[in-house]
Amino acid sequence: MILYDGMEKVVRNESLVVIRNKNGGDVLAICRGGRGMNENIKTSSFSPGVAYAKTGRMPSSVKEFYTFNLEIIGVIGENGIEQNKFIIAPTSLVEMYTGGDDPMKYLCKSDLHIGHYWAEPGWKVPVLKQYINYHIGIFGVTGSGKSYLTRYEVIPLLRKAGYSVIVMDWKGSDYAPYFEPAIPLSKVKVDDSTVLRYFSQLTKNFGYLDREENPVAMAVERALRTVEWRGKTPEEAREKIYQHARLILQQNASRVKKETGMLWLDRLDSSFELITEEEVERFLGTVEPWQVLTEARSKGILVIDMSKGEKEQKLAVFYSIARYLKRLMERKQTLNIALVIDEGPQYAPWQPRGMERDTTDIIIELCALGRSYGLSVVLLSQGMAGEIGLNAAVRRNLNTQFIGRIHPLDLEEAQKLAASYYISPETLLTLPEGHFYFLGRMNPSPTPLLISFQINDDERSGFASKRQHSADGSEIEGNQRGYKQMSGPR
Ligand SMILES: Nc1ncnc2c1ncn2[C@@H]1O[C@H](COP(=O)(O)OP(=O)(O)O)[C@@H](O)[C@H]1O
Ligand SMILES: [Mg+2]
Q1: Is 272 exposed, middle or buried (0-12, 13-18, 19+ CB in 10 A)?
Q2: Hey, which of 117, 142, 148 would you mutate to test ligand 1's pocket, going by the most ligand atoms within 8 Å of its Cβ?
Q3: CA–CA gap between residue 44 and residue 46 (Å, rounded)
Q4: Which atom of ligand 1 is nearest to the CA of 460?
Q5: Is there an atom of ligand 1 within 6 Å of 21 CB?
Q6: Closest CA to 443 of 117, 205, 200
Q7: Residues 6 or more apart from 97 whose CB is under 8 A from it?
Q8: Could you tell me which residues are beta bridge partners of residue 232?
Q9: Does the CB atom of residue 143 touch ligand 1 within 6 A?
Q10: Which of 118, 145, 140 lies closest to 12, judged by CA?
């Protein structure tokens, strides 16, 4: 597209335009990658004079002109946007949308929206509801606005679409203060086999090789299952588990060589040096995964506040809930649940280790089942690929993506986007906070749309935040005008 004189001060990158195609149809398009050229200071080789002559108007100046690439969204049809099949005639007129004239209505008819087109707060961006359970990825460096986007736009959208939302709030500061109810990590009951997994991690498999038969693990598992240990003091609980496991091993020892039996007890004892009261205390919670689900259903949302806890414990709680959801879907139950996972790479990193392997695998399984049984997985990640990114197998399952300012380590990913959609890698590296490219299945437009969203003004000045952050990232309860949002942003 070549600009008329003066329009270079109006048309911007990512401006929305309509091409009145002389060959037929009105074609919606986005301006991407503008260039100013001046023949005196030597630029490209074509001369735009002819194009201007045909329209009977003058180019912007004799020697200087401005151009934009147009990224086609599609032709405006009766029921939304359709693929444009006509060649666009070279002298067709291009008009830019501004203000009250909202082109979003052409994209699709939907009562669900996410944020607004970056240039105009009034242009709510429609989304295709049927793809919500094809899962969502939100990417951007720390501070790019991922958690805000989720809090202000994605969660309200999910709820409006009929999903009950379970949020895994890794830091406990992004969601827990703003939604009710929020339950702390330690209240959630972790199922026995996940507790065993955790203890195995902790004790290096109770001293056994991975594939070896493991009588000690079996005894501890039996003990976890048979003894009433939850709801007790950590000291009591630990002692009960230990004594029962010991009893089982002693009974079994009668059937093997004496040394073997001794070795078992030895390994049990040294394992329990690591399974301290503190470790047992992590798992004394009694809120069962089904209660988490019921609560989420009745309130519309439930936040798991994971601020206090070791990483492996956080993963164990997540795993426990995820396993329950998986079991329900395997029994062919439709869930209508969205699982929002902030800090995604903590659960499904590039190269998972230890418990991360279990959580990565289960996320993949949830994604696969979720498409049939109404579970939407929403993952937030500061990186897309490689070391800072999400596990590749998980990422393949996220069919809708929001991409904010990316990390320089993700430049390669950005270049792939650039190749497909003319979005320059520099643009992605420098996007302002709260700006995201929206692409994939939920987007009615085949080309990414740059969206943003509004936050309330208190928040912008940091005034309403009821917590302060100290330099080491830990939090101090502040005494400010704290508020609690019951559902979504005010
Ligand atoms: N739409 C927005 N408008 C203005 N500021 C925003 C917007 N979204 C986010 N921010 C600012 O960016 C900061 C970081 O956002 P946050 O969601 O915590 O980032 P991330 O989760 O990606 O690390 C917020 O504290 C807020 O001040
Ligand atoms: Mg965040």
Answers
A1: buried
A2: 148
A3: 6
A4: 27
A5: no
A6: 117
A7: 15, 16, 17, 18, 103
A8: none
A9: yes
A10: 118
Q: Domains of the chain (ranges plus CATH)? A: 7-96 (no CATH), 124-189+286-477 (3.40.50.300), 192-281 (no CATH)
User: 171 C-alpha vs ligand 2 centroid, how far in Å?
Assistant: 8
State how beta strands 124-126 and 113-117 pair.
antiparallel
- Cα 219 to chain centroid distance, Å, stands at 39
Q: How far is the CA of 139 from the centre of ligand 1 (A)?
A: 13
Q: What ligand is nearest to the CA atom of residue 432?
A: 1
Instruction: Please work out whether the CB of residue 147 comes within 6 Å of at least one atom of ligand 1.
Output: yes
Q: What are phi and psi of 72, to 5 degrees?
A: -75, 130
Q: How far apart are the first and last CA of the chain?
A: 42
Query: Is any atom of ligand 1 closer than 6 Å to the C-beta of 402?
Result: no
Please tell me the number of the ligand nearest to residue 341's CA: 2
Pick from 268, 265, 256, 251: which is nearest to 206 by CA? 268
Give the tokens for residue 478: 């502040």
Q: Calculate how far, in angstroms, residue 286's C-alpha sits from the geometric centre of ligand 2.
A: 28
455 C-alpha to ligand 1 centroid (Å): 9
The DSSP-derived string for 229-254 is -TTS-HHHHHHHHHHHHHHHHHHHHT
Rounded CA gap, 99 and 122, in Å? 8
Per-residue pLDDT of the chain (490 residues; tens, 9 = 90+): 999 988 999 999 999 999 999 999 999 999 998 888 877 665 555 555 556 666 666 655 556 889 999 999 999 998 889 999 999 999 999 999 988 889 999 998 889 999 999 989 999 999 999 999 999 999 999 999 999 999 999 999 999 999 999 999 999 999 999 999 999 999 999 889 889 989 998 999 999 998 889 999 999 999 999 999 998 999 999 999 999 999 999 999 999 999 999 999 999 999 999 999 999 999 999 999 999 999 999 999 999 999 988 898 999 999 999 999 999 999 999 999 999 999 999 999 999 998 899 999 999 999 999 999 999 999 999 999 888 999 999 999 999 999 999 999 998 888 888 788 889 898 999 999 999 999 999 999 999 999 999 998 666 555 444 444 433 444 333 333 333 333 343 3
| Residues near ligand 2 ion, CB 5 Å cutoff | 147
